[in-house]
Amino acid sequence: QVQLVESGGGLVQPGGSLRLSCAASGSIYSINVMGWYRQAPGKERELVASNTRGGNTNYADSVKGRFAFSRDNVKNTIDLQMNSLKAEDTAVYYCHAAGVYTSRWSMLSGVYWGQGTQVTVSS
After folding, report:
1. Per-residue pLDDT tens for 75-111?
2. What do you get for the CA distance between the two ends of the chain, in Å?
3. Dihedral of the CA atoms 54, 49, 98, 78 (nearest 10)?
4. What angle do CA 11, 14, 16 make, to 5 degrees?
5. Cβ atoms < 10 Å from Cβ of 33
6. What is the arrangement of strands in the sheet containing 67-72, beginning at the earlier edge strand?
7. What is the Cα–Cα distance from 26 to 83, expressed in whole angstroms?
8. 100 contacts 109 by C-beta, under 8 angstroms
């Protein structure tokens, strides 16, 4: 139905930058909510940034001012520009989508996740 594929993770030194991308594919007319979550070892998955189509983007307090979310509603892609990275940003980052419409009137009930991409911040 819907596939989310992330790219752009890797190893970076503290203070460095990375850009994550996610592309949604499948039978998609539009997507209401797209965002990024992350999960560090031994911790719960947490919201990083989430955007409702046509609305504002919500950021976790820990990333405000350092991360920037962008979205292309035509291509069904999202990006996360991560600057001033810290060791505590190390985690697997997951792309998320919900409220996926396959036509103007038909919405899928599921919540979709990508496979995750590892971000490691270390010197």
Report:
1. 999 999 999 999 999 999 999 999 999 999 999 999 9
2. 40
3. 70
4. 70
5. 15
6. 2-7, 18-26, 77-82, 67-72
7. 31
8. no
